[in-house]
Task: inverse folding
């Protein structure tokens, strides 16, 4: 997801929009395959759930082989996609309505490793969750979403169409290198989970597949299609809310109204809709809040601002950290530049 549509545009014989729709169909079909094969994993014995910091879907007694199976494949997947991004930035760096050859390679690599992860799950079960914290997976996706807010700041604004006072140099830096972080966040999260067929996992895999698809379409018009990138951000609302409902812990409203709050404050200003539509969306949001919290209790109303406050604070914290890193880099090498190519 990027905040500007660079030029020039090169025509290619294969449409990136067709590749996008093909990837979306593949994502849903492969998720259906995970569901269809899910019963094969039901006999695996797992430890009791011990709380929010515990990840339930991992073997009680992992072996060298179960660990190696996931870590080797994850590293190969990660390095391979990082290489495609590096190649695209250094050898291509030109937007097209079709597909570059490196896009086809990236799509093929991701399809291959998605398939290998399914095989690995049914042979060895464990994902990266056996060795790393659940918060690392969740945190990586949160930072990804915050980086999108930063990159889009000048184009759509941060608060009701008005941009936040963020450093242009920081925005340029994140635009230039975001692909590497996004690839890590999505692929790391993808390999964190075994391909089990719980509703929460299935919803999560669909969303992860769509993010991986987006990461494969760099330097194409599909990659910067505003409705497509908006749908990816909007899907966080659906994913977070549905998973919370499935968990039955009563915090679904925090996710629903939290992410919807970011939608009405920021995200809906990134798509070309009339002003009356924005007022309608805001009105529906406010009416839903009044209705739900008249039932849940007004003492819980603070739920709706928790996620927005965290995300917007992280925007400024991350901007400051990146600015500090750039400042240090320039002190070491005054000639360094992070300007984006257009």
Result:
């Amino acid at each position: 997801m990027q905040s500007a549509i660079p030029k020039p545009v090169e025509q290619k014989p294969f449409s990136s929009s067709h590749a996008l729709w093909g990837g979306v169909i593949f994502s849903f079909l492969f998720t259906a395959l995970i569901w269809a094969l899910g019963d094969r994993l039901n006999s695996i014995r797992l430890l009791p759930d011990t709380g929010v910091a515990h990840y339930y879907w991992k073997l009680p007694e992992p072996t060298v082989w179960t660990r190696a199976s996931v870590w080797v494949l994850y590293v190969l997947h990660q390095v391979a996609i990082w290489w495609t991004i590096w190649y695209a930035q250094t050898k291509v760096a030109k937007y097209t309505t079709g597909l570059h050859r490196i896009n086809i390679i990236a799509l093929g690599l991701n399809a291959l490793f998605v398939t290998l992860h399914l095989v690995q799950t049914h042979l060895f079960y464990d994902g990266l969750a056996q060795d790393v914290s659940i918060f690392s997976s969740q945190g990586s996706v949160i930072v990804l979403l915050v980086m999108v807010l930063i990159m889009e700041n000048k184009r759509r604004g941060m608060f009701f169409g008005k941009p936040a006072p963020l450093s242009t140099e920081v925005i340029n830096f994140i635009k230039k290198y975001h692909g590497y972080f996004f690839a890590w966040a999505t692929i790391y999260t993808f390999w964190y989970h075994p391909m089990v067929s719980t509703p929460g996992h299935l919803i999560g895999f669909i969303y992860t597949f769509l993010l991986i698809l987006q990461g494969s379409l760099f330097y194409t018009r599909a990659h910067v299609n505003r409705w497509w990138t908006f749908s990816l951000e909007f899907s966080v609302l659906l994913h977070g809310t549905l998973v919370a409902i499935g968990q039955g812990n009563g915090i679904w409203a925090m996710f629903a109204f939290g992410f919807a709050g970011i939608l009405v404050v920021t995200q809906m200003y990134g798509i070309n809709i009339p002003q009356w539509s924005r007022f309608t969306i805001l009105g529906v949001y406010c009416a839903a809040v009044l209705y739900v919290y008249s039932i849940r209790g007004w003492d819980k109303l603070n739920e709706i601002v928790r996620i927005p406050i965290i995300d917007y604070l992280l925007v400024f914290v991350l901007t400051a950290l990146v600015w500090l890193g750039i400042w240090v880099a320039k002190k070491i090498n005054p000639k360094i530049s992070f300007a984006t190519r257009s």
The chain is about 65% helix and 0% strand. The CA atoms of residues 100 and 146 lie 29 Å apart. The radius of gyration is 21 Å.
